User: Fold Iron ABC transporter permease from Crassaminicella thermophila.
Amino acid sequence: MEKNLALKLKRKHYKEKIIGFGFVVLLIITFFSSVNFGRADIGAFDVVKIIFGKITGKEEVYASIKESYSAIVWNIRLPRVLTAIIVGSGLAVSGAVFQSLLMNPLADSYTMGVSSGAAFGATIAIYINIFLDGFNLSITFCAFIGAFLTLGIVVAIAKVKGILSSSNLIIAGIIVSSILSAGIKFLKSLAGENVSAIINWLMGSLSARSWEHVFISFPIIILCMIVCIYFSEDLNILCLGDKEAKALGIDTQNLRRIFLICGSLITAVCVSVSGIISFIGLIVPHMLRFAIGSDNRTLIPLTALLGGELLLVADTAARTLMNIEIPVGVLTTLLGGPFFIYIFITRNKSLY
Assistant:
């Protein structure tokens, strides 16, 4: 029996390595394909030369290529592609963390109200910029502040006698999210004919993303992912229940706070950069749980890879399928809606 168990574990680890390697290869292929796709017909080899030359500082590598092509690849396509990977990875990891932390297959950043808080902050910034002359508030900064203020309110409401429980966090998140959604609708009604500016941001888009967005989002999201991976084994124990975790020496309250802050921080950064992009945090963790199980030590890093790939593919399709660009948030909702229904129907079949 012990030999059979050891063999099963060996096969499981081998399967995880194969999947991880496949995801890395797929991400590289998707990356170069996405940078290559666009209205300007730039050859794949030229794209590689531009990227290599810019990174190494060797201008002679791409000197024979049109300057406009170099600008398109380096200043427009590449920042957008990198932002898509970063945001997709972040949303997927935050979804995996919240689902494990709250032991709820339907949990993600929207359940916690963090996304609604970011949306409300951004909506206020857009509204002020439209109607008050001389003001130019940063939408990204206001979305970030809105997300963290919302997190503080949700935690304050959910805390009973100094203890945070999963059920209280979900209920508090839904309540606060509903109130903020009403606030967004109120501001939209006041905006009148300028409401399109608010709607466009709320639909979620990676259009016109620059290197600034990459430099803002990358270090914060990567740091939070590292923290989540570092404590992933403790998260596995926490999923067994608070009593079992405490018996094994885990400080459940502090651990819950760590993952709550990391997941919310990732979401705040992602939403502040891209707007509301739904279902990435819901779809990706479930796909991988069916494939490799619920061990967060492997689930979290693989979720990051697949999440980045999925959003990158969706964004590439959104900007190339039609003559006009479709907001990527609309596309992910169309893909994620049926999947959400499937999860809801089969929610009693636990994967935790």
The chain has one domain: 2-345.
